[in-house]
Design goal:
It is built from twelve helices and 17 strands. The strands form four sheets. Strands 3, 4, 5, 8, 9, 16 and 17 form a seven-stranded mixed beta sheet that branches. A six-stranded parallel beta sheet has the order 12-11-10-13-14-15, with helices on one face. The longest helix has 14 residues, at 299-312. It has helices at 42-48, 101-104, 154-157, 163-173, 188-199, 214-220, 231-236, 255-258, 281-285, 299-312, 326-334, 347-350, and strands spanning 2-9, 16-23, 30-39, 68-75, 87-90, 93-95, 115-116, 137-141, 146-147, 180-184, 203-208, 224-227, 241-246, 261-269, 290-293, 318-322, 341-345. The chain starts with a strand and ends with a helix. It is of the alpha/beta class. Bound molecules: zinc ion (ZN) (2 copies).
Length: 352
C-alpha cells in the first residue's frame, strides 16, 4: 500500500478538503496512473452531500471523481495493453464480476456486481470503499482502463468518460444518422449530446428554456433550436421526432416531449430527476411510442466512443479549475453557471 493526496469530504456538510488516502500497490493486471485531469460530474455533488442516501449511502471520507485522464507510472507483470508513460483514462467503473452474462457481452455497466470508481465496496480491502479521481494517483485493473487518442486535448477528454459515454451510447444504439433527433437541455450532458448527434449525421434540434443558449447550441452543432416555453413553436413539431435524448435532471414535464415523437419514436432519459416523473399513458399509446433510460456504457463501447471522438476531434467544452476551487465550483454547477463542464487540473493538488 501507499498513500496519495486527495480531496475528500469528511461528512455530508463538510465540503471537500485536502487529505491523504491509501491505494493498493499495483498487482498483476493493475495500472497505476498519475492523474492529470478529473472532470466534475453532478453525481460527485450528490455523493459528497449524501443526497442518494436511500439507494447508495455515502461512506466517509468520500473522494469523488469518475472522469479521469492521466499518465501511466507503473504496471503489474501481467499488463498487456499499457506501458509506463502512456496516457490513459478511467470512467465510472473500475471492476465487475467478469462472469455474468452482461460482462460476457461487454456490458459491464449492467453487471449486478459492478464496482464503481468511488463509494463502492473495495474488493481489495485497501479501504472501506473505492476512492475516485480527485486525487494524485489511482490504481485500476487494465480491463477498466481506456486508451486516449493522441490528438485530443486532455482536459476536454476527461468529461468524455461520463458525460460523453452517457450521451454517446443511446444515440449510437438508436442509429440516428439521417433522423430527426431532439436534445433536451444544454448542460454537461446535453452539450455532448449535441456534438454526438451532429457527428452521427442526425438532423439535430436542441430544446432549451434559455434564449441565451441559442447561439451556443448552434455553435455546438444544432441545426435548429427550440425554446421549450414557446407552446406554438413546440406544437409545430408534434409527431415529427425519431429520437429524443432527455438530459434534464430537474423536475420537468416529459409528456410535452413524448408528444413530439413520431410513431415508434423513442425518448431516452439520461438525467435523473429526484422525484418520480408523471407520464401520460395516452402520449405513449397513441403512435406506439417508447420511453427508455440509459446508464453510461460498457468498456468496449467507451473505447469505441473515445476512438470516435479522436476521429471527429470531439472533446467537452471545459472550464479548467485548480482543486482548491472545487467547493465554489459545486455551488456554480448547481446554478448551471458553467460552460459546460468543470475539469480539475490535478497538478494543483501536488503542492496543496
Ligand atoms: Zn458522472
Ligand atoms: Zn458481471
Amino acid at each position: 500500500m501507499y498513500t496519495t493526496k486527495a480531496y475528500a469530504a469528511a461528512s455530508e456538510v463538510s465540503g471537500l478538503a485536502c487529505t491523504t488516502v491509501p491505494r493498493r500497490d499495483p498487482v498483476e493486471q493493475d495500472v497505476q496512473i498519475e492523474i492529470l485531469f478529473c472532470g466534475v460530474c453532478h453525481s460527485d455533488v450528490h455523493t459528497v452531500r449524501n443526497e442518494w442516501k436511500h439507494a447508495m449511502p455515502t461512506v466517509y471520507p468520500a473522494v469523488p471523481g469518475h472522469e479521469i485522464v492521466g499518465r501511466v507510472t507503473k504496471i503489474g507483470s501481467g499488463v498487456k495493453n499499457f506501458k509506463v508513460g502512456d496516457i490513459a483514462a478511467v470512467g465510472c467503473l473500475v471492476d465487475s464480476d467478469h462472469t455474468c452474462p452482461k460482462c460476457q457481452a461487454g456490458l459491464e455497466n449492467l453487471c449486478p456486481n459492478m464496482v464503481m470508481t468511488y463509494n463502492s465496496p473495495d474488493k481489495h480491502g485497501t479501504a472501506p470503499v473505492t476512492y475516485g479521481g480527485y486525487s494524485n494517483s489511482i490504481v485500476v485493473n487494465e480491463r477498466f482502463v481506456l486508451q486516449v487518442p493522441k490528438n485530443l486535448d486532455l482536459a476536454g477528454t476527461a468529461p468524455l468518460l461520463c458525460a460523453g459515454i452517457t450521451t454517446y451510447s443511446p444515440l449510437s444504439r438508436a442509429n440516428v444518422k439521417g433522423k430527426k433527433v431532439g436534445i433536451v437541455g444544454l448542460g454537461g450532458l446535453g452539450h455532448m449530446g449535441v456534438k454526438f448527434a451532429h457527428a452521427f449525421g442526425a438532423q439535430t434540434v436542441v430544446f432549451t428554456t434559455s434564449q441565451g443558449k441559442v447561439a451556443d447550441a448552434k455553435r455546438l452543432g444544432a441545426d435548429e433550436v427550440i425554446l421549450s416555453k414557446d407552446a406554438d413553436e413546440m406544437n409545430k413539431h408534434a409527431g415529427t421526432f425519431d429520437f429524443i435524448l432527455d438530459t434534464v435532471s430537474a423536475d420537468h414535464d416529459i409528456n410535452t416531449y413524448l408528444n413530439l415523437l413520431a410513431a415508434d419514436g423513442t425518448l431516452t432519459l439520461v438525467g435523473a430527476p429526484e422525484k418520480p416523473l408523471s407520464i401520460s399513458a395516452f402520449a405513449l399509446l397513441f403512435a406506439r411510442r417508447n420511453l427508455a433510460g440509459s446508464l453510461i456504457g460498457g468498456i468496449k463501447e467507451t473505447q469505441e466512443m473515445l476512438d470516435f471522438c479522436g476521429k471527429h476531434n470531439i472533446v467537452s467544452d471545459v472550464e479548467v479549475i485548480p482543486v482548491e476551487k472545487i467547493n465554489e465550483a459545486y455551488e456554480r454547477l448547481l446554478k448551471a453557471d458553467v460552460k459546460y463542464r468543470f475539469c480539475i487540473d490535478m497538478s494543483s493538488l501536488k503542492g496543496a
